[in-house]
Amino acid sequence: MKGFKEQDMPYFSLLSDGISTRDFLDETIRGLVFSDEKNAFYVADLGDVVQKHARWLEHLPLVSPFYAVKCNDELPVLRALAAMGAGFDCASKNEMALVLGLGVPAERIIYANPCKQVSHIKYAARHGVHTMTFDNEAELEKVARNHPHARLVLRIMADDSKAVCRLSVKFGASLKSCRHLLERARQLGVDVIGVSFHVGSGCMEAETFALAIADARCVFDMAVDFGYCLSLLDIGGGFPGSPDAKVTFEEIAGVLNGALERYFPAESGVRVIAEPGRFYVASAFMLAVGIIAKKAVVQNSLDNEEASRDDQPAYMYYVNDGVYGSFNCILFDHANVLPLAHRKVDLDEPLFETSVWGPTCDGLDCVLECVQLPELHLGDWLIFQHMGAYTLAAASTFNGFQKPVVHYVMSSEDRLLMQELLSGMEEVVLGPCLQSSCGDKLGLPPTHLPPGVNA
């Protein structure tokens, strides 16, 4: 990016050489030893986000990423992606306002919600957000009345049977209905510019993308019959963000590149975008939760009686974040979370049947029903990795429990990588929020800086 300056960087603490994200987390926990406020917290590595962007550019160079804001709307994440030139997939007026407030041009936003509230459509029209999706006739008529200059993208149904979270039950037009929708759009004088699909969140079969691209090609050809020359293909999301995914990003990219070359080669002039969310942020966030209460019970006891001295106990640990907070991903995103004991565990130390519970007064607030852990004590910590996707964004303050603080870090190597990525970009106009590196101006909580870490 021409004219890039240090203050254009998002807010983070620069890690000294040899200091890892886990080191930062360990020092943060040690810094809380004498505090009564031992609240759950995140350590988020913005360098991981930068590395993901580099991987995207390497493996999908012809596909422009439009980050799905709904996945994680933390300001430092959005600022980093905005600075690196990413576009944004917004689902509501508030998400559009958030991104526009960062100085991102409206042209780098797709309003990718096929069923929209009228006031949100009008907001998009007033602020120059013209690209938006639809999948039904009623939506066409609504947009025609409230945003006549919209550039519509027809969302088609994709086979998401191999995905963890299916979306076709709610969104997407069948191929059979597309001809009628295109005809109706022409009657209404609405501009249709492209096709989109989504193979489902957490897609576990790379070939699903190729099948959806082939279907999109059919709709492109169909649109010619109604005088449309479509120019945009949106391949949606579904890209894995954690290293333990059953299908890798590189495998999906290989399938995508082959399918795009076959159905939408570069000489076709069709612009291709995607809506990655968890790919960018899942592995960047690590969550630390503290044990605030503990109960030993008779193993396999149905009546939950207190354990006697001679019984093999099972332990119930109560921690300061739960399913109404960060662990909502268990209910809404079908996430499988794995706890790691923060304290050193000896190899020969016995493991016990363990359940982990959130802090609220609701019996449904169970993080883990059955897991093997060593015996832990009040004040000990559990660590959960890969907690950046669909966690904070959907967390509530039920029972008055606040969302965890996030500490943002980046290594000097990743900062250099970010500068390298920016150096080849054309100038991007930055808004006032991007021009400030001060956390307090963004409403961020103060960051505890462990020894060896510089602001």
UniProtKB/TrEMBL annotation:
Protein name: ornithine decarboxylase
Pathway of action: Amine and polyamine biosynthesis; putrescine biosynthesis via L-ornithine pathway; putrescine from L-ornithine: step 1/1
Positions in coiled-coil regions: none
GO cellular component: cytoplasm
GO molecular function, one term: ornithine decarboxylase activity
Reaction(s) the record says it catalyses: L-ornithine + H(+) = putrescine + CO2
Native species: Petromyzon marinus
Record lineage: Eukaryota, Metazoa, Chordata, Craniata, Vertebrata
Gene Ontology biological-process entries: putrescine biosynthetic process from arginine, via ornithine
Residues covered by the Orn/DAP/Arg decarboxylase 2 C-terminal domain: 41-388
